[in-house]
Design brief:
The protein has a domain of 155 residues. The chain is 73% helix and 0% strand. It is built from seven helices and no strands. It is flat and about 60 Å long.
């Protein structure tokens, strides 16, 4: 695939993603009914849940890429893990922000140290630290190795976030009753959100590969001169 075709496909992809985001935002704002108890603030749930699930998915991508790097030691996997980690921090930040807005309306305060909120904050911090570790290590191979081990360990917080409401008393609701049109809107949100996440990870990965190619160019192999005994043939 040539460069022009690749750019055209990329632009069409982002155009479709943007149009779908506009469509589901319109559904959320104008078509989905107003929740009786919480009012319009409840509609932030349509952003919060798909973003939270997308966060788990990209954290899993970091985990898989980290494991694959430990097995194969290929820089390609390190760049995948790095790309997914950056998106994970972005998504986790949105999850925390939308959750705080929800909590202010539902519970009367912006934050409470409930199990799920605490584990969610820890998850965000873990991947922020992942991004902070990388520039602090000069050797690319040592950086990739340390980050791969860290990426595997950091993922262990994901099941804790998911199971915290199931296993521990928590103010955070484990489920919400939705009407059919609410459920349709929620499911519709997963489509552009998934496309957005994929686009961000792929774009970040390409940037990582480009940066690696510039900062760590592959040196051409040069034949070393051979010592030929006196009177011998080369």
């Amino acid at each position: 695939m040539d460069s022009a075709t690749s750019k055209l496909i990329s632009r069409l992809y982002w155009l479709v993603t943007f149009c779908l985001l506009v469509a589901v935002t319109a559904m959320m704002a104008f078509w989905t009914p107003r929740e009786e108890t919480m009012g319009d603030v409840q509609k932030i749930f349509y952003i919060h849940l798909p973003t939270a699930i997308s966060t788990f998915i990209v954290c899993f991508v970091v985990f898989v890429a980290s494991v694959m790097y430990l097995l194969q030691r290929r820089s390609w996997w390190d760049d995948v893990a790095f790309a997914a980690a950056k998106v994970a921090v972005l998504l986790a930040s949105i999850v925390l922000l939308t959750g705080m807005i929800w909590g202010r309306s539902a519970w009367g305060h912006w934050w409470t140290w409930s199990p799920r909120l605490t584990f969610s904050l820890i998850l965000w911090l873990l991947y922020v630290v992942y991004l902070m570790i990388r520039p602090s290590i000069e050797s690319s191979q040592r950086r990739a190795l340390i980050c791969a081990v860290y990426g595997v360990i950091a993922f262990m917080d994901v099941p804790l976030v998911y199971l915290s409401v199931k296993l521990l008393p928590d103010i955070h609701p484990s489920s919400i009753q939705l009407s059919p049109d609410m459920r349709t809107t929620l499911l519709a949100w997963f489509v552009p959100m998934g496309m957005l996440v994929i686009g961000l990870v792929v774009t970040s990965f390409k940037i990582n590969r480009l940066h690696r190619a510039i900062s760590e160019p592959v040196e051409e192999e040069v034949d070393e001169p051979r010592l030929v005994p006196a009177g011998g043939n080369a």
